[in-house]
Amino acid sequence: MKTLIVGANGKVGTILSGKMWAAHDFSPVALIRDPRQQTKFTALGLPSVVGDLEAGISDFLPGMDAVVFTAGSGGHTGPEKTIDVDQNGAVRLIMDCKKHGVRRFIMVSAIGADPNSESPRIQHYLRAKGVADGALRASGLDYVILAPGTLLEELGTGRIEAAQELGHHGYLPREDLADCILESVRNYNCVGKTVEIISGGKKIKDAIADAVGGQAQPAIL
Asked: If phi over 0 gives left and psi between -120 and 50 gives alpha, with beta otherwise, what is residue 217?
């Protein structure tokens, strides 16, 4: 499955790139903003393309089977940049995927994402994510929205708690999120679902299968 990783140079994107490249069922391409970042992906053996999400990256979409959106403005930017990247950049990419026939779209969101969020701490981020998630749900694409809890730098455990509505918050190592992304692409039952994820006691494959209903079904292109 030829997959464009948007935000490949970020913390989750870097882990995901390595895991996708090592897997036999993916052909990943890393989208990066700075040509100097290509050295890292060349060392991984991963092809990369240089583009600016805010300016549009439709030139890289023909021939892709899937897009993983794990880009973000970062925790040190203001609301305007968050809207530019996490909201408007994502919505533009969703529309471009429709135009170019890229059916699968995996969105990395967050627990609590909501266009009307009243969170006292990261309200602008959750609102931007909520708008982008809403656009994806309405797009007609074969989408999956993964909504993790607070991300950690720790090594993954390979075990999570997942549900379409958990009802509570929690934490998740970035490595486990990367494995969840892989599993959500592989399991076609995930299409059309929003899955909230935190650390837990079930193996990732089993937890996601239970969250979306039934045994894992192979992805169909």
From this structure: beta
